[in-house]
Specification:
single chain; mainly beta; 5-stranded mixed β-sheet; 2 helices; globular; disordered N terminus
């Protein structure tokens, strides 16, 4: 039974409220912080903007993909666009859905993930569990393949194997050249309660790391799906885990031979990459992707506070709670600053050492869906598929 994320967040947020008094707050309005913000100027110079449709792409993995001076973007309604990164002009587009449905049936064929480009092929997936491979030179469909169920994970490719993590805990490896299914594995039985969404697999050389909605993270060989190790994040003895939601929806992170992973029930673990053995375990509630830089973990909790944690033991370094009234997301690190966005179209940056607020910029009136950094350029995509290219200037 799939539950509404909103209902689940009410339960989990209440448990966090009961224990939040243990965290130390930062004062971001003092004079010292103001002077710091004056010395750390960030300017975003708008280069171009474009729109590729007005449909809402929330709860999808439709993110921009950059390849050889071109930007590839998928619209939920089935359009694929190729955009010149220098000018923002659309070079070509193709409509996949109209080729496979008619009239009202099209609404059930929405794209949910992609694009990803490898060689001359571009790949996207849809709500029905269908993969499309398009030749970007000929602008034509090369092959399609139906997999098990709806695809809500980003597509990744290694050694000519296209990896698909679909609903119901199914991981598959397809031949990227013809769509032939090379192998299929089950990541375990789904729990009675789970969140709609799946974790994006992570590549490590010729291996793939995958989290599932039953709280199990596994490490497998890309070419055949064989299991190297697995670890269960399920815990029943934590007082905060009063509801059995064990999904691993965030993308695991590999850093210095250690796997860092979190589940919806608040379990945050560090695992040995070679064996899967637990190094340390903490309780931090997060359902958004986290980042690691210079042995510090940065994450956003369910109250929209930013945490900085020590990678060696998971201990708290600092908390920034200025943004509790905003729904923030898209953490990334660039030139000694942490950047992120909110649901009101703002772009923020803070100091990574103490979490001190430095600045912000209004980008759009709608929520920012995704961020893509290309050298000193910033691609911003809103939930209604408006695309911005900024040049980042830092003094």
């Amino acid at each position: 039974m799939k539950l509404s994320k909103f209902i689940i967040l009410i339960f989990i947020s209440y448990s966090i409220f009961l224990t939040s008094c243990t965290y130390k707050k930062n004062d971001v309005f003092n004079k010292k912080n103001y002077l710091l913000s004056k010395l750390n100027k960030v300017q975003l110079q708008l280069i171009w903007t474009n729109g590729i449709g007005k449909n809402n792409i929330s709860f999808t993995k439709l993110n921009p993909f950059y390849n050889k001076n071109f930007l590839y973007i998928a619209n939920k309604n089935g359009f694929i666009y190729c955009i010149n990164i220098k000018t923002g002009k659309i070079i070509w587009n193709i409509n996949l859905i109209n080729k496979f449905c008619h009239f009202s049936f099209c609404k059930y064929e929405y794209l949910t993930t992609g694009p990803v480009v490898s060689g001359n092929y571009l790949y996207v997936g849809n709500k029905q569990g269908k993969i499309f491979a398009i030749n970007i030179k000929k602008k034509s469909i090369i092959w399609t393949k139906n997999v098990f169920t709806e695809i809500l994970s980003s597509l990744i490719i290694r050694k000519n194997v296209l990896l698909i993590h679909s609903m119901d805990n199914i991981l598959q490896g397809l031949d990227k050249n013809n769509g032939k299914i090379i192998w299929t594995v089950s990541l375990g039985h789904s729990n009675g309660f789970s969140i709609q969404g799946v974790s994006t697999p992570v590549l490590f050389f010729d291996n793939v790391l995958t989290g599932s909605d039953n709280g199990i993270i596994s490490f497998r060989i890309v070419t055949n799906g064989s299991l190297v190790w697995e670890q269960n994040l399920l815990r029943f003895n934590n007082k905060e885990n009063f509801i059995n939601i064990n999904d691993i929806d965030t993308q695991p992170v590999i850093h210095n031979g250690i796997v860092y992973v979190s589940s919806y029930n608040g379990i945050f673990m560090a695992l040995d990459l070679s064996t899967g053995n637990i190094i340390w375990e903490k309780i931090y509630f997060t359902h958004k992707n986290f980042i690691i830089h210079k042995n510090i973990i940065y994450l956003i909790d369910l109250q929209n506070r930013i945490f900085a944690l020590n990678t060696d033991n998971g201990n708290l370094i600092w908390i920034q709670d200025k943004f509790k009234n905003n729904k923030i997301n898209n953490l990334f690190f660039y030139k000694n600053k942490i950047f992120f966005t909110d649901n009101k179209g703002f772009f923020y940056w803070i100091d990574p050492k103490k979490g001190i607020f430095i600045g912000k910029k209004k980008i759009d009136k709608y929520k920012i869906n995704s961020i893509l950094v290309i050298k000193n350029q910033l691609i911003i995509q809103t939930i209604y598929n408006k695309i911005y290219l900024f040049k980042i200037l830092i003094t």
